[in-house]
Each structure stands twice: as structure tokens, then as C-alpha cells.
TrEMBL record:
One GO cellular component term noted in the UniProt record for this chain: cytoplasm
Catalytic residues identified in the record: 393
Record InterPro entries: Ala_racemase/Decarboxylase_C, De-COase2_CS, De-COase2_N, Orn/DAP/Arg_de-COase, Orn_de-COase, PLP-binding_barrel
Superkingdom of origin: Eukaryota
Entry-linked Pfam families: Orn_Arg_deC_N
In-chain residues carrying the UniProt-annotated modification N6-(pyridoxal phosphate)lysine: 98
Gene Ontology BP terms: putrescine biosynthetic process from arginine, via ornithine
Keyword Translocase carried by entry: no
Cofactor(s) the protein requires to work: pyridoxal 5'-phosphate
Keywords: Lyase, Polyamine biosynthesis, Pyridoxal phosphate
Organism: Xyrichtys novacula (Pearly razorfish)
Protein name from the UniProt record: Ornithine decarboxylase-like
Length: 461
């Protein structure tokens, strides 16, 4: 097994953020992530993600099994975590489980010592069942069922958000010792998916809510906000952090000692997103240093979801049917007969918008995908205008109609990258089509680096 060398910066970052590995009776460190126990495929001897996909497609084809599947690249998550630690050293990430609840994803992030943002009893159950400590969970939903609050209380999950008097009343009845985080509404007008129409208390309502919390003898420890998913404006974070400082100041005047700021999510997981992660972090760090400097003692956390998983998942789908369209091609070409193809192709995949591609109709931050061929393509092959459909009987089940492909056959495979966010967690089995299998892979080098960082931490202690 080869050794992956971590940079000094990355290793220092891991030192600060990664907790202790379990220790045996003889003092040796136990691997914090065991692929054999997590249904994770270990890539050794130079095998790559592409190698794995090629072998898996060949294997399925030989078995007459054309079911769709995901490949989850856990190496990508590890590298993005190091990037987070390097660029946001003061901000503890609490992964948003709603974004992708694949067990291997949760186990990988647990090994990286992130916290977890859970929005329901079910997500809390999942995290706890995979070994996450209750102290590493925030119940980050402001409208919680009573039974879910009681479950959190009985299982030691104490940190939770609120934004209304009614929520305070429910919490006082079901979890009076909870550590509460007041979610405020902030400007999310520069985001692809706006959340503050539904969640968050307006600044003018803050004093009343804090007063009500005091009347109910509840412990409010901090403030949270969310600038919206797919944020495109760095200044949104700056203003939101300034708004949070205003709430901290009001709370202090009322006798509260707040110690936590949760800056939410909104970070894209795509490498080609229009605003680079480093642009956001520069603005965030400057704002934190201005309003919540280290000497303030305020702990900073965030709730990234897409950031960790969006680019880590690739979907492989099989062409199960096709149609050749030769009618009205001149109309399609707008009278440009010289370069007009003689046909248009329609392909039907075994996955679509009611399955793994539900993001196309449910996620405003992911409205288009770019399928590409698994097989090699000769540059001389003629391309045709192509429509790609999903497998169901619904005409809304369209993957894309803005692509040109060479002529393909039933049995060919298409791949789609950047499929880790709000895909797995939104999948249905409409029309009886099975959900895509998920194959999680991790390179031996990354596993070694991960466990090395834990061992190094123990040696330092």
C-alpha cells in the first residue's frame, strides 16, 4: 500500500479538527474508518475511479443487469474537507444530512470529525446508528414535531434551532434543558434557492423571542442563519454575520451569554461554480474577525451539504430504448438546410427525474445536467440533436433536450457527474423503477492518510 503525504498545512488542520481514534488495550490506534464494515470498496494498486466504473459496467453487462448506479468518490470528500479546514480554520462543519444520507457518506464525515445537521428524528436516528455522538448533532429545523423533540431529548441531542414563540413553547414542554440557537432571517436574494421566506425570525422580532425564552427558563446559546442554497454573492455572508452580531448585542443587553454562531450553508460543491469557494471564505473570515474575533470566545459552525458531496457522486445510467425522428427536421433547423441533420435521436434511460435525477424538478440550484458517453467516441462520428428521457410514463420525465450525440444503441451507458446533492435523498420508486445502487469507493492512500492523522494526534497528546 502506498503512503499519501499530507502537507504541513493539511496535517495541522487535521490535528485541530480530527478527534481521537479508538485506542486498543496496548495503546495502538484502531482505524477510524474500516471499509469492510462500511460497505466501501478500497482502491488499491493504482486503481482509479474510472477503472472501477469500467469494471462495474462490464460486470453488470455480463449479468444482463442494466440497473443504474452511483459511484461515490470518498477521496473527493476527504480533499474538500482539507480545503475547508485550510480556508475556514475557525468554522466547524456540521454536515447537512438532508443533502445526501448515504451511510458511507455519514461514516466518512464522522471519521473526519465533522458535526451533523439533522432535520428530523429519522436523520438523528441514522447519525446515532452510525456512531455519531449526540454532542456532534444539531437539530437544525425550526418546525419540529413534538415526538421528534422528545426523541432528541431522550437520546442526548440537546442543540436545536427555533424562530418562533410556538416553537419555544413546544421545546419547553418536551426538552426544557435544550441548548437553543435562534435562527434569524437574512438577505438571501442572491441565492438560487431562497429559504428565508419560510424560516428565520426577522431582526425586529428578536427581542420578543429572547424575552419569551427567558420567561420559559430556556437556554439560548447562539444565533444561526442561512443565506440560501447556491449563494452567488459573497457580500450576503458579510451582511448576515453583521446581522448576527446585532442579535448578540441585543441578547447581551438582556442578560444572555451567547457563545455560538452558526453561519449555515449555501456553499456549492461544484468546481465550476461561478463564485469560487475561496472568494466566499475570504469575505467570511474578514467578517468573523471583525464581528466575532477569536478573543470573543464565540464558537463558529456551519452547515455545508452540497459542498461535501455534490462533485463526489457520478451516476451511470443505461439506454433501455431509443427512437429515430426524421419528421420536420427542416423546421427544427430553422431553414438552415445546408447543415441540417437528417434525423433527431431520442434515448430513454433507466433513470430519470423521478429517480436519481429528481433534482431537475425539485432543486432550483441544479436545473440541468450534462450526460456524456461512457464508451470512447471517434471525433469523426456524426452528431445528431438528441433528447434524453427518463424511463417513466410521465412526459415530464425528461433529462435533457440540449445535447448532440453520435448515434447510440440500446445497452450503451451514459455518465453524469456532480450528482451527489439532493439526488439520493429525493429519489422515488414511481412506476416501480428501482432506485440506483450506490457503490462507495476510497483509495488506499486516502485511508492511510486519514488514519495517519488520527495516530499523529494521539502521539502528540
Amino acid at each position: 500500500m502506498s503512503v499519501c503525504l499530507i502537507s504541513n498545512t493539511g496535517l495541522r488542520a487535521m490535528e485541530e479538527h480530527v478527534g481521537h481514534a479508538p485506542v486498543t488495550t496496548n495503546g495502538s490506534a484502531v482505524h477510524v474508518l474500516c471499509p469492510e464494515d462500511c460497505d466501501i470498496e478500497l482502491l488499491e494498486n493504482g486503481r482509479t475511479i474510472d477503472d472501477f466504473i469500467n469494471i462495474k459496467i462490464k460486470e453488470l453487462t455480463s449479468e444482463d443487469n442494466e440497473e443504474p448506479f452511483f459511484v461515490a468518490n470518498l477521496d473527493s470528500m476527504f480533499k474538500r474537507h482539507l480545503k475547508w479546514l485550510t480556508n475556514l480554520p475557525r468554522v466547524k462543519p456540521f454536515y447537512a444530512v438532508k443533502c445526501n444520507n448515504t451511510p458511507a457518506v455519514v461514516q466518512m464525515l464522522r471519521a473526519l470529525d465533522t458535526g451533523f445537521d439533522c432535520a428530523s428524528k429519522g436523520e438523528i436516528q441514522l447519525a446515532l446508528s452510525l456512531g455519531v455522538s449526540p454532542e456532534k448533532i444539531i437539530y437544525a429545523h425550526t418546525t419540529k414535531p413534538l415526538s421528534h423533540i422528545k426523541y432528541a431529548c431522550s437520546h442526548g441531542v440537546n442543540m436545536m434551532t427555533f424562530d418562533s414563540e410556538d416553537e419555544l413553547l413546544k421545546i419547553s414542554l418536551c426538552h426544557p434543558k435544550a441548548k437553543l440557537v435562534l435562527r434569524i432571517a437574512v438577505d438571501d436574494s442572491k441565492s438560487l434557492l431562497r429559504l428565508n421566506l419560510k424560516f428565520g425570525a426577522k431582526l425586529e422580532k428578536v427581542s420578543k423571542l429572547l424575552e419569551r425564552a427567558r420567561e420559559l427558563d430556556l437556554n439560548v446559546i447562539g444565533v444561526s442563519f442561512h443565506v440560501g442554497s447556491g449563494c452567488t454573492e459573497c457580500a450576503s455572508f458579510k451582511q448576515a454575520i453583521a446581522d448576527a452580531k446585532e442579535v448578540f448585542d441585543k441578547a447581551k443587553m438582556m442578560g444572555f451569554q451567547m457563545t455560538l454562531l452558526d453561519i449555515g450553508g449555501g456553499f456549492s460543491g461544484r468546481e465550476d461554480f461561478e463564485v469560487k469557494f475561496e472568494e466566499f471564505t475570504e469575505v467570511i473570515n474578514d467578517a468573523l474577525d471583525k464581528y466575532f474575533p477569536p478573543e470573543s470566545g464565540v464558537k463558529i459552525m456551519a452547515e455545508p451539504g452540497r459542498y461535501y458531496v455534490e462533485s463526489a457522486f457520478t451516476l451511470a445510467a443505461n439506454i433501455i430504448a431509443r427512437r429515430v425522428i426524421t419528421d420536420d427536421m427542416k423546421e427544427l433547423c430553422n431553414g438552415n438546410n445546408e447543415n441540417c441533420p437528417d434525423k433527431m435521436m431520442m434515448y430513454y434511460l433507466n433513470d430519470g427525474v423521478y429517480g436519481s435525477l429528481s433534482c431537475l424538478i425539485n432543486d432550483a440550484a441544479h436545473t440541468a445536467v450534462e450526460p456524456y458517453l461512457h464508451r470512447a467516441v471517434d471525433s469523426s462520428e456524426q452528431r445528431y440533436p438528441t433528447v434524453v428521457w427518463g424511463p417513466t410514463c410521465d412526459c415530464l420525465d425528461k433529462v435533457t433536450d440540449n445535447i448532440w450525440f453520435p448515434e447510440l444503441q440500446v445497452g450503451d451507458w451514459l455518465l453524469i457527474d456532480n450528482m451527489g446533492a439532493y439526488s439520493v435523498s429525493l429519489t422515488t420508486d414511481f412506476n416501480g423503477f428501482e432506485r440506483a445502487n450506490i457503490y462507495s469507493v476510497l483509495s488506499a492512500d486516502i485511508l492511510h492518510a486519514l488514519n495517519l492523522s488520527h495516530t499523529y494526534k494521539i502521539m502528540q497528546d
